[in-house]
Amino acid sequence: MYTIRQVADLTGFSPDTLRYYEKIGLLKSPQRGSGEVRMYSEEDVRLASAVHCLKKTGMSLDDMKEFIQEGRCLADHSSLWSDEDLQTVSTRSQILLKQLERMERQRQALDDLIKQTKDKLGFYNEVLKETISQ
């Protein structure tokens, strides 16, 4: 079992962020120890780490919440998928595809800025070369 400080250290979230995510239902409320201290399980830490990964992609809290709520561990299913399982996979796939498309747009915008910066830097270097050689 882990305290909120330990989970914060392991996941990169602040304790306040963990409490907020619990409040909005993104993370489930952990067990409480003596003095009502939050005690997180390994599963809680794994979920918080997964949320941290989603957050790093820039995914909105609403999309993260839907992604987490729709999800469950599908890895240990047999090859027989229920309609509910397939709907869950489809929903999660759509959320990730939307996020990937957003990140691709961000990357293109960043690539454009890098090119503009390099072009401007090249221009400045040419001006400096011409000035020095005169």
From TrEMBL:
Residues 1-70 form the HTH merR-type domain. Residues 86-120 form a coiled coil. The keyword Coiled coil applies. Signal peptide: none annotated. GO terms for molecular function: DNA binding; DNA-binding transcription factor activity. The keyword Transcription regulation applies. Keywords: Coiled coil, DNA-binding, Repressor, Transcription, Transcription regulation. Pfam families: MerR_1. This is MerR family transcriptional regulator. It comes from Cohnella zeiphila.
